[in-house]
Amino acid sequence: MTSLDQSADLRPTTGVRRLAWPLAVANLVANIGIVITGGAVRLTGSGLGCPTWPRCTDDSYVAHGELGIHGAIEFGNRLLTFVLVVLALALWVVMLVGLVRSWRGEREWRPFLLATTVALGIPAQAIIGGITVHTDLNPWIVSLHLLVSMAIIGVCVVLLDELRGPDRDGSPRLATLAWAVFAVTWVVLYLGTVVTGSGPHSGDLDSRRTGLDPQVMSHVHAAAVYLLLALTLGLAVAARRVGTPTLAAAALLLLVLEVAQGVVGFVQYFTDLPEILVGLHMLGAALVSASVTWVVLAARPRHRG
Predict the structure, then answer these.
(1) 57 pairs with which residues across the strands?
(2) Phi, psi of 60, rounded to the nearest 5 degrees
């Protein structure tokens, strides 16, 4: 009969996890990076720099001189997708190897399934990107394109926690509040895309807008932000009082990011949306997505033993 110690040795090896960790970090960084480059495409009016998909033009997969700087920017963003594919596949293969090597022992399916989700998210994004081009940058499709990237970023954070996250007491009593913060954060992220889709940075001079009043949507977005700030502050204070330092630190980090996002948002609103600030705001949104995922994870007790 196999002993418990022997069975434990049949789990995915420390070597597999050691190799998976930098790949998981690279996937997180790259997915945040493509949010930034996607923002650059939109803010420079290069959304249709490559006027078709999957080719850049009807007769070429790559940008050429006649497309100018807009073609180069859009094609560069597409090239980064291939980097994401390589990183996601490499991570998936490593996690698959971990499963194969532990076929006689206790398999850890969760990291493999998370890596699979990340890997499948990249081609899904490519398809959504293609639909975006073929619909001449429909703002609702563009919104979906960004939100899927935000979701992939969250999955990357969950995977990192699964691979090497710290033990923590968590707080079941505060888990509901943590999920409320998560839900409102996603409402804020969505409303942010609606504001952008209603404003001047359409990605191309000829692409249509949502038809909504950008000023009204900005106020709706701001109201959701105020609610999010109040909930996050309440969670940070409650976590500190309950004595859950990991959750308190995660909530405080999220609160700092939210305040920074609020400052950038107000400045860009009163300065007619300069491109550099809008780009910085998009980076902040990606970091908020990662941070709020960590908040939910930190509310869950975990002791590996």
Answers:
(1) 60
(2) -150, 140
Q: Where are the chain's structural domains?
A: 10-165, 168-305
- Copy the structure tokens of residue 240: 């500190």
Residue 280's SS3 state is helix
Tally the residues of the chain: 305
Q: What is the DSSP-derived secondary structure letter of residue 13?
A: P
Contact call for residues 118 and 156 (beta carbons, < 8 A): yes
Q: pLDDT tens across 172-218, in order?
A: 889 999 999 999 999 999 999 888 877 665 544 456 667 788 888 88
11, pLDDT greater than 80: no
Quickly list DSSP for 143-208. Answer: HHHHHHHHHHHHHHHHHHHHHHPPPB---HHHHHHHHHHHHHHHHHHHHHHHHHHHSS--SSTTS-
Q: Output DSSP code: residue 257.
A: H
